[in-house]
Backbone:
């Protein structure tokens, strides 16, 4: 089987600052200010061409961080990512420039991906039609609702036809009809044998759509396998997690982060 994505020992370290003065001082005197926080700890995972992989995990597990690293939007601190082909990410906040119109955003994103002006002009009507934005396409994106932004991001990403499509919570906003249309489009991608990563809190969408599931727990891979193997365990965990009090959830997070940190220190 041909590998499509290889994520090797990837960690992501963020600096957490108590205030903006610390952030500025850290630029002048690096390492002296702020506290290190690992959003990902030594993550390993591989996907084969044609795999549809779901990323699951409670809030703050690192799903978006990992998606952004795979898409090349955020750099990893340690480790490596190998991609076989071009990746495109659709997210609710999909890197659209607020001051520019929808049409200008289409052009900008496509230019950045290496398309010629002629190619962009040819793709533009399909993107506009799929996004269902009507006259809003010539309005600045700052006037769009989150559903409209997501529709535009989705339309651009599916029309440019990438080898690897990453969809981060993009179907959680907007209307049901658009979500259905998008799922249909994603099925077309699946049939073409493209690789997809799908980030969602919807268990139903995960089961309906993905073959494999990567379960992240506060920056660490808790499990990776087929939907049939991983989802029952994740759903069982969610039942317990949802019953926890705020304090218990906090404790659960602290314990997970502490053990991940210890493991990371051991391996360094
Ligand atoms: N730019 C940043 N600076 C500091 N910390 C960050 C930054 N981006 C993300 N984080 C932290 O990294 C952790 C992982 O965040 P991430 O958004 O990847 O999780 P997630 O699983 O996608 O969460 P959700 O389901 O809520 O979208 C969180 O604790 C978050 O606060």
Residues:
């Amino acid at each position: 089987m041909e590998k499509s994505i290889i994520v090797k020992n990837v960690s992501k370290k963020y600096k957490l600052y108590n205030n903006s003065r610390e952030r500025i001082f850290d630029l002048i005197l690096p390492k002296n200010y702020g506290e290190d926080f690992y959003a990902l700890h030594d993550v390993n995972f591989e996907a084969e061409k044609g795999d549809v992989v779901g990323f699951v995990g409670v809030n703050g597990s690192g799903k978006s961080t990992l998606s952004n690293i795979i898409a090349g939007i955020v750099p990893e601190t340690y480790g490596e990512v190998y991609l076989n082909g071009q990746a495109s990410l659709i997210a609710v906040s999909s890197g659209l420039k607020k001051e520019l119109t929808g049409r200008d955003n289409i052009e900008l994103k496509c230019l950045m991906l290496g398309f010629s002006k002629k190619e962009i002009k040819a793709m533009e009507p399909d993107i506009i039609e799929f996004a269902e934005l009507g006259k809003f396409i010539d309005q600045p994106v700052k006037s769009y609702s989150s559903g409209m932004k997501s529709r535009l991001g989705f339309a651009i990403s599916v029309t440019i036809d990438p080898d690897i499509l990453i969809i981060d919570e993009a179907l959680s906003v907007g209307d049901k009809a658009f979500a259905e249309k998008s799922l249909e489009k994603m099925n077309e991608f699946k049939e073409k044998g493209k690789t997809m990563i799908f980030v969602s809190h919807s268990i139903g969408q995960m089961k309906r759509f993905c073959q494999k599931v990567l379960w992240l727990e506060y920056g660490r891979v808790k499990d990776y396998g087929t939907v049939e193997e991983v989802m029952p365990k994740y759903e069982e965990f969610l039942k317990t997690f949802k019953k926890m009090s705020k304090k218990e959830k906090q404790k659960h997070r602290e314990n997970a982060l502490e053990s991940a940190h210890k493991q990371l220190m051991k391996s360094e």
